UniProtKB/TrEMBL annotation:
Protein's recorded name: Transcriptional regulator
InterPro entries listed in its UniProt record: WCX_dom
Pfam families membership: WCX
Record-annotated WCX domain positions: 235-275
Amino acid sequence: MKRNKETITLSIPSGTKEHLEEIARRLGIFWGKSPSVSGLLVAIAQQEFEVGEPFALNPTQVAALQQAIGLLKDSGCVEQAQIISSLVLERGKLEPPMRQSLLQQVSQPSEAWRILVDQLRGNQQPFHLLYGNPQGEDLSFTVRFAEISFEEKRFYLNIWCDETDDIKNPGFPELIHNRCLRLDRIKGVVPINGQWRHEGLDSLKVHLHLYRGMVKAYESKPDDIDNEVIEDVRQIVRRVSNPFWLIREVLRYGEDCVVVSPDSVRSLVKEKLKTLCQHYNLEVSS
């Protein structure tokens, strides 16, 4: 069957034909053994190749996409995370260590632990969890309650577990069964028979006072039990299952936020402030 073809005449500067033939040769577009300018034009018209500056991700864009990849993986959207990882590998200007890390993620996708944990939580079914801590140790927990929280740009799995031996010097004995785990450090989840803990995580009540601008600027948190303004002070009572995050919040508010009680939390804030003063060679009386 004869194919219809159109003929066009191009007026191009001297030497342009050679450049077009070189591009066709590089792209593997030939007519017989010779590079084909006509074939190159057809390929461009059919959008088989990009024209102009190649699309590339700058370091700022790569950093933003990496954060998105982490959030997608923590949320259980593993396939979408893999797609973005492949895009960053293809179009990003990457240093060798970063490229190697992304290649490993793409070639060995992580399990969607978020999905499995959500299913077990919904069924109120206990489970064994294998976790790799930052020290390179593998820890096993018998989980009887779990919830997901978002803290400082990352999702975490908060659990109530039977095991307590991994806590050598508990600063808060009443919270010794609570753990806050990174989703990307989970190595295995296995459902087991047993009783689900309906009371949730262990907690303690922390009394906070907010001053000056924070009296009006403060936004109530889901774990706030009481929140009222008395004279010029906003007084808050919050249920806290992990003092680590609370103390980071308190220090961020600076002099406008004070932990009133309990003494265990208040003392820990004082120790943090003393250490900070020592870093700046400031003397603090006890």
